[in-house]
Write a structure and sequence with these properties.
Elements: H1 2-10, H2 12-15, E1 27-29, H3 44-53, E2 57-64, E3 70-72, E4 77-78, E5 81-82, H4 88-91, H5 105-112, E6 119-124, H6 130-146, E7 153-157, H7 160-167, E8 174-176, H8 189-195, E9 199-203, H9 204-209, H10 211-219, E10 223-227, H11 232-240, E11 246-248, H12 251-258
Parallel strand pairs: 1-2, 1-11, 2-6, 6-7, 7-8, 9-10
Antiparallel strand pairs: 2-3, 4-5
Helix pairs in contact: 6-7
C-alpha cells in the first residue's frame, strides 16, 4: 500500500498536464500487470505496475452494485457475494490479497489520472439483465465525463444494447468484444460495418478461425485488438498482422518484443 502512495505522489505533477503523452506501443495489460508481479488482478497495484513498465494501456473490469456503486472486479462474484445484489459496504469488508480495499471505478480513474503514459481500458461487464448491463455502461461513461477523464479512457463492451446506449453519451473509443469461445453472427465484419462499429477486440481464437477478417477490418479502418495473447506463437501471429492493440497477461514479454524491437 505504501508504494501506491509513493507512486501517486511522484506523479502528481504529471497529472497537471492537460495533454497526456501515452506510451506509443500495442501493449494492453489484461487486468493490469499481475501475472509476473504478484499483484492482485484489477488492483491499483497492478495498474501501477503496468504504467511503470510502459504499457500503452491497462484493462480493468467494472460492475455495478445493488446500491449503484461502480466497482472493479472481473468475476460477477466477490468473496462469494454477487456484486449486483450486494452493497458496496458489504463488499468492501473483504480486502484484496495485497491488503488494498476493493477499488471503486472513481478511485481507479483518479489513480489513472495521476500519470499520463498509460490509458485505462474499461471492460463494461455484461452481467445480469440487459437493463443492468446497460446501467453499468451508462453510469461508467457519465462518471468518466464527470471526472474529466476522457483523454485517459477507452471502453470495451460485449453487449450491443450497452454499446448503443453509451454511444449516445460518449464519443470515446468503444470496442466490441463479441463472445468468449462462442462465435456470434454479429461479430462478422459486415455486421460491424452496418452497425457503424469502428473498433473490435475479439478473443484470439476468433481471429485464428477467420484470418480473412483481419484484412477486411483493416481495409475498413477498424481498430483491432485481441485477447488474451500470452504465448510467443500468438504474439507473433498478431504482431505479423500489425494489430493496433494486443491484450496480454504477459505485458513484460510483449513489450520486449515491440518497444525498440519491432516485432522481435
Amino acid at each position: 500500500m505504501k508504494k501506491l502512495f509513493i507512486f501517486a505522489a511522484a506523479l502528481m505533477c504529471v497529472a497537471c498536464s492537460t495533454t497526456p503523452n501515452f506510451n506509443q506501443n500495442k501493449v494492453i495489460a489484461h487486468r493490469g500487470a499481475w501475472k509476473n508481479t504478484g499483484h492482485p488482478q484489477n488492483s491499483l497495484a497492478s495498474f501501477r505496475a503496468a504504467a511503470e513498465m510502459g504499457c500503452h494501456g491497462s484493462e480493468c473490469d467494472v460492475h455495478l452494485t445493488a446500491d449503484d456503486s461502480l466497482v472493479i472486479n472481473h468475476d460477477p462474484t466477490y468473496n462469494g457475494l454477487e456484486i449486483e445484489k450486494a452493497t458496496y459496504a458489504e463488499l468492501v469488508k473483504f480486502p484484496l490479497p495485497n491488503g488494498e480495499k476493493l477499488p471503486t471505478m472513481r478511485e481507479y480513474i483518479a489513480f489513472a489520472k495521476q500519470q499520463t503514459g498509460t490509458k485505462l481500458v474499461i471492460d463494461v461487464k455484461n452481467i445480469g439483465s440487459s437493463d443492468h448491463a446497460v446501467a453499468i455502461g451508462v453510469a461508467t461513461a457519465k462518471l468518466v465525463q464527470e471526472m474529466e477523464a476522457e483523454p485517459w479512457v477507452e471502453y470495451l463492451v460485449a453487449h450491443l444494447p450497452t454499446y448503443e446506449a453509451m454511444r449516445k453519451i460518449t464519443s470515446l473509443p468503444i470496442a466490441y468484444l463479441g463472445r468468449w469461445q462462442k462465435e456470434l453472427p454479429e461479430m462478422h465484419p459486415d455486421t460491424m460495418l452496418n452497425r457503424g462499429i469502428t473498433a473490435v477486440d475479439y478473443q484470439d481464437v476468433h481471429f485464428f478461425n477467420h484470418p480473412e477478417w483481419v484484412a477486411t477490418f483493416k481495409e475498413r479502418g477498424v481498430h483491432l485488438n485481441a485477447w488474451t495473447v500470452n504465448d510467443e506463437e500468438g504474439m507473433t501471429w498478431f504482431l505479423d498482422r500489425d494489430f493496433d492493440y494486443i491484450t496480454t497477461d504477459n505485458p513484460e514479454r510483449l513489450l520486449e518484443r515491440t518497444v525498440g524491437n519491432e516485432a522481435l
